[in-house]
Design a protein that fits this description.
- It contains 2 helices and 16 strands.
- It has helices spanning 107-111, 238-252, and strands spanning 9-12, 17-20, 45-47, 62-64, 69-72, 77-80, 84-85, 91-92, 102-106, 140-144, 162-163, 169-170, 213-216, 221-224, 228-229, 235-236.
- It has a two-stranded antiparallel ribbon. Strands 3-4 form a two-stranded antiparallel sheet. Strands 5-6 form a two-stranded antiparallel ribbon.
- A hairpin with a 4-residue loop joins strand 1 (9-12) and strand 2 (17-20).
């Protein structure tokens, strides 16, 4: 009788059929194929990333490997497609594990973090897993590290030190750009990048190298323009500028 169900189920003598245990093709397992002799494993299931909706308001039914991987029937483990992870391929992966300069969190967690981008206070994305926020624990991304406080509050900066999808780039030291009409060290009322929210009094915008140099995003170091120096290029050297222009005029004589 199907090899006694391979030790992974009970045999129903009247029908010569197996009632497989959970994980081996039981009626409660989510799978497209059940071995009649309980010889093959089933894999973990998660909300399908894409499937056919059953009504105008119902979709993302449970699916083996969340429809984003293949099931190894011998081991009962999902082999996830690139960009997906978890035992059921139920969540997205963070690129390069945030390069060692950030944490990989769900969009639900990210919404509650004051230092996550885009900057937004008192926000949330949760509470309706069967509807609008079905992916609250499925979409993951990086929240990058910073040696300075990030946020919209006083003393906080609107950009983190490390940035990019994989937190692989590093901002340079920031300072006020004297050529602008605002003081970037007090960005009250200035909207954060890609955000609907603005800083309060004492909040800081981030201006790499005070716009007086080029930032090397690999090292986080400034290469200052002629006449500027300091780690953030904010110190002006009038003599250097005068010498630079004099050299230019001397060159033009020939």
């Amino acid at each position: 009788m199907h090899n006694h169900c391979n030790g992974h189920g009970s045999c129903t003598a009247s029908t010569s059929s197996c009632m497989c245990y959970e994980g081996w093709g039981s009626p409660d397992d989510i799978t497209l194929y059940r071995a009649p002799d309980c010889s093959l494993r089933t894999c973990p299931a998660g909300k399908a990333w894409a499937d056919v909706p059953t009504s105008a308001t119902n979709a993302h039914a449970l699916a083996e490997c969340s429809n984003r991987g293949t099931c190894d029937k011998k081991s009962g483990s999902c082999k996830c497609y690139p960009g997906f992870s978890g035992d059921a391929c139920q969540r997205t992966s963070c690129p390069y594990d945030c390069s060692g300069h950030g944490v990989c969190v769900s969009i639900k967690q990210m919404a509650r973090m004051a230092n996550a981008l885009p900057i937004a206070p008192n926000s949330y994305y949760e509470g309706d897993e069967d509807g609008d926020t079905w992916d609250e624990d499925k979409l993951y991304g990086c929240v990058c590290d910073s040696s300075w406080s990030v946020g919209l509050g006083s003393g906080e900066t609107q950009e983190p030190e490390w940035f990019g999808p994989a937190c692989s780039m590093r901002h340079c030291p920031s300072a006020d750009d004297p050529r602008t009409l605002i003081d970037e060290t007090d960005c009250q009322g200035v909207g954060a990048k890609d955000s609907y929210h603005a800083g309060i009094a004492g909040n800081k915008c981030h201006v790499d190298c005070a716009n007086r140099g080029i930032c090397d995003y690999k090292t986080g170091l400034c290469q200052c323009f002629n006449g500027q120096y300091g780690e953030d290029c904010s110190i002006n050297d009038p003599d250097a500028v005068y010498e630079y222009w004099n050299k230019g005029f001397d060159y033009m004589k020939y």
